[in-house]
């Protein structure tokens, strides 16, 4: 049994960053991520479920949704497996935090507060730039390369690309990246994580200190994490092999589709809901309902 929790599990992430008594950890992580450009002194947790204007419209469920003292919104998500339309999803999610700022029934001048969408990825989505694992995205003027709009920011962290050992860590930002990648693999507390805020992290993350109920919930969350990764990795691998075997472009497309279908069927067997399956595979809800 692991000594420390996996921060990519739903339980692990919310245990460390999503509970009111521990929000100093989230504040510290975000301040390091923003490189001092936005100093967050306090955060308020907001309801993480957002609905469209009509019942038929798709909802959004964030891992964490917070607001700082200036009214700026922070969507913080851990993404466990690669999705075909992952970037589209992050843009869609940010739209909820933008649209809900509209002041109904008032003479509103359209002034908006900043929105930050932060995704901590357990996969690599940009294979062409192996050395780059932090992506900070804003709207740019394509001719001048100047930032056109400062209030909308997307930050993606490709955790698998961070390859420093504990002895090589140079600052707190790197310590956070190391924790996301390696915390659940550690047998002891490394010296580099025995200072400042990281002392609290290590205490909170030690599984032996959990109540029996929390230990059971964590183990269930860990099983879901590995089941999901296994289903995705296996099915998409089979889909790619099928396409490569056929050799033609049409065959590759067919192989990829079959991989998605296999993924969806495996996830249905393991009890995942249709919306989650649609997000992971890129299949429509109608297609997934047919598999039932």
Instruction: Specify the helix fraction band.
Output: 40-55%
Strands of the widest sheet, in order across it, are: 1-4-5-6-8-7
Return the average pLDDT rounded to an integer.
85
Give the count of structural domains: 2
Uncertain stretches of 5 or more adjacent residues: none
- Gross morphology is globular
What is the succession of H and E elements? HHEEEEEHEEEHHHHHH
Report on the architecture of this protein.
Strand 5, helix 3 and strand 6 form a beta-alpha-beta unit. By secondary structure, the chain is an alpha/beta fold. The chain folds into two domains: 10-207, no CATH class; 216-291, no CATH class. The protein has helices spanning 10-17, 23-33, 86-99, 172-182, 197-205, 212-246, 249-269, 274-281, 285-291; strands at 43-45, 49-50, 60-61, 64-68, 73-79, 115-121, 134-140, 147-158. The longest helix is centred in the last third of the chain and has 35 residues, at 212-246. The protein has nine helices and eight strands. The protein starts with 9 loop residues before the first helix and ends with a helix.
């Amino acid at each position: 049994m692991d000594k420390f929790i996996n921060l990519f599990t739903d339980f692990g992430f919310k245990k460390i960053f999503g509970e009111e008594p521990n929000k100093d950890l989230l504040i510290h992580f975000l301040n390091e991520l923003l490189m001092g450009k936005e100093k967050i002194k306090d955060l308020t947790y907001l309801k993480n479920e957002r609905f469209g204007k009509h019942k038929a419209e798709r909802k959004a469920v964030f891992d964490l949704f917070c607001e700082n003292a200036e009214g700026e919104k922070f969507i913080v998500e851990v993404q466990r497996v690669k999705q075909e339309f992952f970037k589209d999803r992050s843009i869609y999610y940010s739209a909820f935090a933008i649209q809900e700022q509209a002041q109904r029934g008032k003479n509103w001048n359209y002034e908006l507060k900043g929105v930050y969408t932060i995704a901590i990825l357990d996969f690599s989505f940009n294979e062409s730039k192996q050395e780059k694992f932090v992506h900070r995205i804003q709207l740019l003027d394509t001719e001048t390369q100047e930032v056109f709009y400062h209030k909308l920011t997307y930050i993606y962290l490709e955790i698998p690309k961070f390859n420093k050992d504990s002895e090589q860590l140079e600052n707190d930002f790197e310590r956070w990246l190391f924790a996301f990648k390696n915390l659940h693999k550690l047998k002891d507390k490394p010296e580099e994580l025995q200072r400042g805020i990281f002392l609290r992290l290590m205490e909170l993350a030690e599984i032996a200190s959990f109540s029996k109920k929390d230990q059971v919930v964590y183990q269930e969350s860990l099983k879901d994490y590995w089941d999901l990764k296994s289903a995705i990795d296996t099915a998409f691998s089979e889909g790619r092999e099928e396409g490569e075997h056929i050799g033609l472009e049409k065959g590759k497309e067919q192989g990829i589709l079959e991989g998605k279908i296999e993924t969806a069927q495996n996830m249905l067997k393991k009890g995942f809901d249709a919306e989650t399956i649609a997000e992971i595979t890129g299949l429509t809800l109608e297609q997934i309902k047919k598999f039932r």
